[in-house]
Amino acid sequence: MKHAWLLGFSLAFAFVGACRPTLDDDLSHVDGPRILAVQSEPAEAKPGEEITLRALTTDGVMYPLVTSLDWSFCVARRSLAEPTSLSAACLHDAPGALVALGAGAEARGAIPAEACRLFGPDRPLAEVAGEPAGRPADPDVTGGYFLPGVVRAPGAGDALFDVRVRCGLAGATQEDVATFERTYRSNTNPRVADVTVTHADGRLEAAAEGAEITASAGEVLGVRVAWPACIGDAPCGGAERYPAFDAVSRTLGSRREAMRVSWLASRGRFAETRTGRDEADELRDVATTWTAPSAADPAAPAILWTVLRDARGGTGFRSLRVRVR
């Protein structure tokens, strides 16, 4: 079975993923049908709440996939011995491992009621009568927990995604729990506010969603992505502030989301696969360069995609067409 692995944001931060690519893999070069990213709306939900899942896809040339996507949640808990972020039971369609969400360009479904017991801080039930209960899952660096899933497309392989689940606060005092529940705001998906292209001659060009620009063969373009400014603790499409419980010091503090951008292209080459800002960096943009193909081909534009992710698992994306003349 072919898998097109999507790295969860928290895993990408640690430079590990569901499946480690080889050093020769260039995941930023899109040379065939592929699922590039998955977005959940809302970006974070409690068990029982409904979400909508959407995918950024391509046929490998310039268009989205026309085939129907098959969506599922994984409800099989990964064993400690398994090296991947997803249980092998879900990858191999073991009975009861997947909860089907339907087929289509997008899918809707409720977060399973047992999500915080399977993948969160609630202690899981014993699998066999008479045996002790399982170990609760550890939170990621932001204090969050994630429900895994699989989306499949014929010809494009399978892709993994995860949805942040809002569970209870483990190990905190009643006072901290009350403060956390009063002040915590569920994550909002980040939004690409601006994409700016700098041409080799110094000319600047703003690129709206789906815009088309031209470039010379072999030209090196500077590409900059920016996200909105966040004011206070209000929900925002940029780097949001959020309360976080430190399990080591057992104190409740405030953090700010780190941001990462993945750069992908159907033709030409980005200089970097990922760039970003850590939570202490208040700048609201990142940039890299893209080198156009050495041969002109105005009939087949290159497609550039930018996928913006925040530290709590939210996702946003933008595309740009470049005709090489």
Beta-strand segment tally? 20
Structural class per helix/strand content? mainly beta
What is the fourth-level CATH superfamily of the largest domain? Immunoglobulins
How many distinct helices?
A: 4
Main beta-sheet strand count, sense and barrel state: 5 strands, mixed
Q: Roughly what is the average pLDDT, rounded to an integer? A: 88
**What Rg do the Cα atoms give?**
21 Å
Judging from the principal axes of the Cα atoms, what is the shape? globular
Helix content: under 10%
- Order of adjacent strands in the largest pleated sheet: 2-8-7-4-5
What does this structure look like?
With 325 residues, the chain is mainly beta. The protein has two domains: 1-168, Sandwich (Immunoglobulin-like), CATH 2.60.40; 173-325, Immunoglobulin-like, CATH 2.60.40. The chain is 7% helix and 38% strand. It is built from four helices and 20 strands. A five-stranded mixed β-sheet has the order 2-8-7-4-5. Strands 10-9-12-18-16 form a five-stranded antiparallel β-sheet, with no helix packed on it. A five-stranded mixed β-sheet has the order 11-20-19-15-17, with no helix packed on it. The protein is globular. Residues 1-25 have low confidence and may be disordered.
